[in-house]
Amino acid sequence: MTPPFSDILVRRLARARRVAVLTGAGISAESGIATFRDPGGIWEKFSPEELANVRAFLRNPELVQGWYAHRRRLVEQAVPNPGHEALAALERMVPDFTLITQNVDGLHQRAGSRGVVELHGNLTRSYCIDCRRLATAEDLDALAEGVPARCPDCGGLIRPDVVWFGEYLPVAAFEAAEAAARRAEVFLSIGTSAVVYPAAGLPLLAREHGAYVAEVNLTPSAIAGYVDEVVEGAAGAVLPRLVQAVRAASRETTPASGVQNGRKEA
After folding, report:
1. Alpha-carbon distance 101 to 132, whole Å?
2. Does 34-77+123-162 carry CATH code 3.40.50.720?
3. What does CATH list as the number for 1-33+79-120+169-254?
4. Where do the CATH 3.30.1600.10 domains begin and end in the chain?
5. Contact 122, 87 (CB under 8 A)
6. Lowest mean pLDDT segment, chosen from 133-137, 189-193, 222-226, 253-257
7. For residue 70, what pLDDT is reported?
8. Which residues in the chain are classed under CATH 3.40.50.1220?
9. How far apart, in Å, are the Cα atoms of 35 and each of 105, 133, 208?
10. What is the mean pLDDT of residues 49-71?
11. Is the dihedral of CA 11, 14, 15, 19 positive or negative?
């Protein structure tokens, strides 16, 4: 079966020493995680904009905390898919590998990825809005009793460690993402529609600095016309084949000088 990606992409990845990847909601959707909420149930009448902002939280913290508790349960039930696992495998093959994600579910880390930059935070973490203390699972138990969860140290309200509408991305995270994009030899944009900035500008930044940029999506994104290669397909189907092809190409291009995989053979 003809692969959906080019030989150029395979060769570029096989010899690259600096690779950056941007992932969006599409790869999480393949693990059954909706972008914001599943249809149906008690949350159907709310839009994300009504709940994912500071004003809504301060007005009705119990409601917002309850919605995020619901989302955490969905994430805990999900498992990394072959796309997540393929990216973790690719990281082990590349000396300088940065995985930049817009997702807040932690599935990349659960799949084994280590160099993860979380642009939008992580749903599995929460903290006090007053003293910034990280919350424990016990701190969140108050929700089950019908009252807002508060910090046991200072009494402040506890919020999820995610970026809400109207908030800026974490400065350190975005600076790390920009630096990775600038130095990348290959940049992969996976499962993102590329309409939310500034994250959507990272593939273009990488291309400006000489990277070969490819996107993997079910349908072409908003920046498809500006990248080097568009691979149409699900990440869980495309990425394992891509990593397998890169691994094979790496073996073929290993110099026959007695050095293999960075170690001199006897």
Report:
1. 23
2. no
3. 3.40.50.1220
4. 34-77+123-162
5. no
6. 253-257
7. 87
8. 1-33+79-120+169-254
9. 10, 28, 30
10. 89
11. positive
Residue count of the chain, please give it: 266
Spatial distance between the Cα atoms of 17 and 95, rounded to a whole number of angstroms: 5
Mean pLDDT (whole number) for 165-172: 94
Name the pTM for this structure: 0.88
Query: Residue 260 pLDDT > 60, yes or no?
Result: no
* Residues with active-site annotation: 120
